[in-house]
Amino acid sequence: MGNTVVSSWNDFDPLKHVIVGRADFTCIPPTEPATEAKIPADSDMRGMWGPRPLETVERANYQLDTLAGLLESRGVRVDRPEPLQWNQAVMTPDFSTGSSFGCMPPRDVLLTVGKEILSAPMSFRCRFWEYLAYHSLMQKYFDEDPEFRWEQAPRPRLSDAAYKAGYFDEITIEERLERTAELDFVTTEHEPLFDAADVLRMGKDLFCQHGLTTNRRGMQWLQRHYPAHRVHAVNFPGDPYPIHIDATFVPLRPGLVMNNPNRKLPEEQRKIFEINGWEIVDAAQPAHEAPPPLCYSSVWLSMNVLILDHGTVIVEASEVNQIEQLDALGFNVLPVEFRDAYPFGGLP
User: Fold this and answer.
1) Could you report the per-residue pLDDT of 69-79, keeping only the tens digit for each?
2) DSSP label at residue 96
3) Which residues, 6 or more positions from 156, have their beta carbon under 8 angstroms from its beta carbon?
4) Which residues, at least 6 apart from 54, have a Cβ–Cβ distance to it below 8 Å?
5) Which pLDDT belongs to residue 7?
6) What is the DSSP letter of 31?
7) Selection from 35, 194, 220, 208 nearest residue 122 by Cα
8) Burial of 335 (0-12, 13-18, 19+ CB in 10 A)
9) How far apart are CA 329 and CA 23, in angstroms?
């Protein structure tokens, strides 16, 4: 037996072991129902697909390697995935698409709940095989930790029945906001769908963002799979592209959570935090007015921090407003240049 111990219940207790992704072979995938919902109408990615430019991959990998080195220097064990050749077609009996995506953000795919790591079903066709980049690591953990549970959520078919046809045809931002506020999303309830990055872990409570990548049926599956947990559906009116909770609602330490001021948790849903003595603070404004080129995500990746322990946090080095806020909240802030990695999926 080796020295692996899988055990994690939240995102803010002292970090001992982490998987940091890689940018190798990452692609801009062809348009599909799920990506069409995610890419803003004015994005420079519209109409583009294929391998990302090599120089951008190299810059992203440099910053990922730098992050891994910093974590290792602080005693954190760092593992890395094995990138596949993502620039090849994805074909199943139900669909085909021109390429896969990549394996830069492990947190999108892998959900750790206690002694278990669960591969999420994912709602993007281009991400259907992404879990394979972590297959060797999962086998290693299985061999080294006799209590580790290696699980896979039901593989979705992702046929046309999983999506609402024409959901975003000629739609304005205002209409997007109306639809998301009404919990009307591109995914249907045909089969369970969720991304791991839509799930916020707080001990026996799992808060799941209902949005473009996670549906009600996915949350029902999670509740049945984790019967000892309480699974809460949350949503954030004000977000026209509700995908992944980690740039919207971020616990920093026990009793303190940071909320995107443009995507506030509704009052009724805030009560569970307030009656348990948690303070919810508005995040600082991003330092940038636009995301980097060829980036899916919004400027609110400024919130996508990495907690090392209750007093230490890693923040992207140019996000000076977020750094200042966290410093004022009593954190030791470690600035790390990571903006070149943002287009590949945010923080790992």
Assistant:
1) 999 999 999 99
2) E
3) 121, 122, 123, 162, 191, 192, 193
4) none
5) 97
6) P
7) 194
8) middle
9) 33
Minimum mean pLDDT among 16-20, 27-31, 134-138, 150-154: which range?
27-31
pLDDT tens per residue across span 12-42 = 999 999 999 999 999 998 888 777 655 555 5
Half-sphere exposure (CA, 13 Å, Cβ side) for 342? 28
- Separation of CA 237 from chain center: 19
pLDDT at 46 over 60: no
- Side by side, the strands of the sheet bearing 279-282 are 249-253, 256-259, 279-282
Tell me the whole-structure pTM to 2 decimals: 0.92
CB burial of 130-157 (b: ≥16 within 10 Å; e: otherwise) equals bbebbeebbeebeeebeebeeeebeebe
Q: What is the DSSP string of 140-207?
A: HHHHH-TT-EEEEPPPP---GGGB-TTTTTT--HHHHHHHHHTT--SB-SSS----GGGEEEETTEEE
Give the residues across from 114 on adjacent strands. 8
Instruction: Please list the residues that pair with 105 across neighbouring strands.
Output: none
Q: Class of 17-344 per CATH? A: alpha beta
The number of helix segments (H) and strand segments (E) in the chain equals 8, 18
Backbone dihedral angles phi then psi of residue 151, each to the nearest 5 degrees: -125, 155
Helix (H) or strand (E) holding 221: helix 216-225
- Convert the pLDDT of each residue in 236-249 to its tens digit: 987 777 789 988 99
> For residues 322 and 23, what is the distance between their CA atoms, to the nearest angstrom?
25
Tokens of 200: 């916020």
Helices (H), 31-118: 33-38, 54-73, 106-109
CA distance 92 to 94: 5
Given the structure tokens 């999983």, which residue do they identify?
162
What whole-number distance in Å separates Cα of residue 54 and Cα of residue 58?
Answer: 6
Q: Does residue 227 sit in helix, strand or coil? A: coil
End-to-end CA gap in the chain:
28
Identify residue 234 by its one-letter amino acid code: V
Buried b (16+ CB within 10 A) or exposed e, 1-27: eeebebebeebbbebebbbbbbbbbbb
